[in-house]
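Training component of the fellowship. As part of building independent skills, the fellow (R.M.) carried out the full modelling exercise for a liganded target. The chosen ligand was benzoyl coenzyme A. The inputs are recorded below so that the supervisory panel can assess the work.
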Amino acid sequence: MTTTPVDPGPPVDPVPQEAAQERFDATIARGDRIEPRDWMPDGYRRTLVRQIAQHAHSEIIGMQPEGNWIGRAPSLRRKAILLAKVQDEAGHGLYLYSACETLGVSRAELTELLLAGRQKYSSIFNYPTLSYADVGTIGWLVDGAAICNQVPLCRTSYGPYGRAMIRICKEESFHQRQGYELLMTMMRGTDAQRAMVQESVDRFWWPSLMMFGPPDAESPNSARSMAWGVKRNSNDELRQKFVDMTVPQAEALGVTLPDPDLRWNDERGHYDFGEPDWAEFAQVVGGSGPCNAQRLAHRRAAHEDGAWVREAATAFAERSGKGGQ
Ligand code: BYC
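Fellow's submitted model of the complex:
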């Protein structure tokens, strides 16, 4: 419960900077992992903290849109599934904050940066959830996009991040399947249920494509992150992979994806698709999306409401001689 940063300690084998840089470069070139006590360039550490923290914040803020429906789930079974899924997101956040702590920054500091608006979280969670179908659509499209983006991150060059991603991806697969199963059940139901699914897919399709980030040509971090093996694929590559994977699933489900330019391109061996509204993306990332203020206000209130739990846990740890554990 205490959020003291884990001190990565001095490098195991202190070496002059130049030799350390060579060793780092060679490790990356071999495709091996950098571990917390290895020397690493400041830029690499900063990039990891930025990306992992954003990812952790996304998991925690991502509990809100679906959490909105826990009290209104249509059956006990659906409620149990949704509860389990939202709890998993909390767990993902914790694995990721822990990975970040190995870089010398505490969860408390990261939470402060999020609440001060100085660190980001995924744009997708700034859209509202207006019907129960959204629980299915988030599972299918949002977790589907998350899997496309995150499976390559299991091979990221920083050990603690890659290991956290392996477990997260296993759970994301369950999330994606529960969403698809919910939507399939609704599509086999009444006309009103089918319309509800289609309306939900219409709202979430484009924001899901935006989860992969700006086009490669406008992605300032990609080149450096890929050279360091932090990212394994570019934003556009993963977006294309997601579209290719999702179109046949939409056909099996019986829903239409809201893109008139979506069609198979035999020559490329991929689906062509339209351009997301990048002005909308910039607005949402910049803090002016439909739910940005609400999400941060809720997170802030939850953090303040939880202060007594942190204090009690810290006092207990100190009294049992486990302070700072
Ligand atoms: N939303 O140079 P770029 C989940 C920012 S959790 C907001 O391409 P990068 C789930 C970007 O940070 C989903 N901001 O950046 C949870 C950068 O700004 P800064 C979260 C975005 O890092 C619960 C600027 O735009 N997944 O799936 O090379 C329930 C320029 O971008 C977004 C992860 O975090 C966005 N969509 O690539 C269900 C995965 N896109 O930082 C599901 C790990 C870009 O320079 N992260 N920005 O101020 C990544 O893979 C990469 O960070 C990204 C962006 C592909 C997202």
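The panel noted the following from the submitted structure. Residues 50-51, 54-55, 58-59, 62, 89, 120, 122-123, 142-143, 146, 149, 210-214, 219-222, 225, 231, 235, 285 surround benzoyl coenzyme A (CB under 6 Å). The chain has a mean pLDDT of 94.
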